[in-house]
Amino acid sequence: MLCSYHTHTYRCHHAQGEDEEYVLRAIDAGMTELGFADHVPYPMDGFCSKFRMPLTDAAGYFESLTALREKYKEQIKIYIGFEAEYYQRWFEGLLRILEDYPCDYLIQGQHFLGNEIDPKERYMSKPFEEESELERYVLQVCEGLRTGVFSYLAHPDIANFIGDDATYRKHMSLLCRTAKQLDIPLEINGLGIRTERTYPTLRFWKLAGEIGCKAVFGCDAHAPEDVWDAASYETAKKIANDCGLQLLERADLHPPLGKIGG
């Protein structure tokens, strides 16, 4: 495991450790690239999320990681980005905020259906069986992918649909076909493996393999020791091999600004 681009920091309120500890862990493990993608500070009509970085921390985030990138430039390549949901209502506002920062990339991580403000909306890892909500999740994810701003899709199988396989395939095949058409990799998520969550789920990855999607591994590190996650990486490789997926050694990261509508 040489590269991972899904690393959080203490600024999101549910990760721990100092920025430099993550970098040193990666260097000690012989990694060549490390990408930080903390939960982006989303402009949501003044709503203050408890699980993402506040905007007041964004400048310090880039200052700290830029300094570490320079300090360790002979030992590892460091990228600075964010993990972001696609919320159509506030998305262009988010991109305007990012114009003030040297953001290397975005990854899409769709934790919520609709948005996280409306109490009627769903956190996607909670079990559900309504077909209409699975369809909404897929359509929202695909709309986000089509903006062209995201380098890859994190934990695409987070939707914990407990209905029948035929319905699951009917809708998730659209997600996989869209990712393939746009040449956007799908992430096999290390946090899900480490903590035995409902994802990765083989019924998704078998479908992705049938359609011919590309996969990438993301540690989804919330502590320095998570950065070098060899056991989870071996599990991810087995999933890819068993499902006929191409597991990329590294992701092709691109800056998000100017990409919307591409």
Approximate helicity band:
25-40%
Structural class: alpha/beta
Biggest β-sheet: strands ordered side by side in the sheet: 1-2-3-4-5
Query: What is the CATH architecture annotation?
Result: Alpha-Beta Barrel
Number of domains: 1
Shape: globular
| CATH class call | Alpha Beta
- End-to-end separation: 31 Å
Arithmetic mean of pLDDT = 95
Total DSSP helices: 8
Number-wise, the strands total 8
Q: What is the fold's blueprint, element by element?
A:
Elements lengths: L2 E5 L11 H10 L4 E7 L18 H14 L5 E8 L3 H11 L6 E4 L22 H16 L3 E4 L11 H18 L3 E4 H5 L7 H10 L2 E5 L11 H14 L2 E2 L15
Parallel strand pairs: 1-2, 2-3, 3-4, 4-5, 6-7, 7-8
Helix pairs in contact: 4-5, 5-7, 7-8
Features:
262 residues; alpha/beta; TIM Barrel; five-stranded parallel sheet; three-stranded parallel sheet; 8 helices; 8 strands
